[in-house]
Amino acid sequence: MSKTYNISELAAKFDITTRTIRFYEEKGLLTPARLGNNRVYTEQDRVKLQLILRGKRLGFSLEESRDIIEMYDPATGSAEQLQRLIGRIQEKRQALQGQLEDIEMMLVDLADTEQKCQQALRNMK
Amino acid sequence: MSKTYNISELAAKFDITTRTIRFYEEKGLLTPARLGNNRVYTEQDRVKLQLILRGKRLGFSLEESRDIIEMYDPATGSAEQLQRLIGRIQEKRQALQGQLEDIEMMLVDLADTEQKCQQALRNMK
DNA sequence: TTTAACCTTTACGTAAACGTCAACATAAAG
DNA sequence: CTTTATGTTGACGTTTACGTAAAGGTTAAA
Known about the structure:
DNA-binding, 2 strands, Multidrug-efflux Transporter Regulator, Chain: A, Domain 2, two-stranded antiparallel sheet, homodimer, mainly alpha, flat
């Protein structure tokens, strides 16, 4: 059996508060087991949390992250459901490609600006 | 002299509301000229708005977008100020690199999941 | 001249994503 | 047995990023 975590371990691991983790549970993104009254998180839960936080860094809403988490679930369904899932996955991939382009544009712009700054510095001396 | 826009033209161009544009002004991200009582936006303003919206797609707060906009301003300052600006630009570029990695990980994961779905579909037939 | 289509400011409302208590349970340590 | 640390469930507060009227000014067409 693989490692489990309690809530504060997990919070420390990702540098977030326990409140945040409970909030994600409230929103249906996590559903940890219980040992008595206390929450117990599995390795799977940890991965889900990681996905959520990665999504956050990319500006996803929790709703979107929940969608993504659902995608990772094998959730063996009918052929029709699988097709729909594939469609949703492709949409997400498209959106991510768009973000890639946005980032690249920003990187170019910032690199340009930095160049101009460096040039201005050289001109001062 | 280059083209100018009124608020609703600009809103239509970017598919946002005029309220949104005024809100960005409230927050100090835009400072359009006035023709009488009405706002007049220059090409520069349009570019700024574009930067803001690009930032939004990447999960930036308006505060962060304002920072970025300030970076693009030549704002000829002292050597010290230029150095600090270069530092901030490099930090942003670092952060964007991090986002690139996040996106690439997500793309890989989603591609994996899609493969599994396709495989599951093939196994059903 | 009135009606329509714009613009303006001011102000209150709202959803998302938590922060921040409060009040209580429990288990280990001194 | 009391303190200390950690957990729990509410419940209300806060910030961000706008939405949604309300009340009014200006220009152009009918």
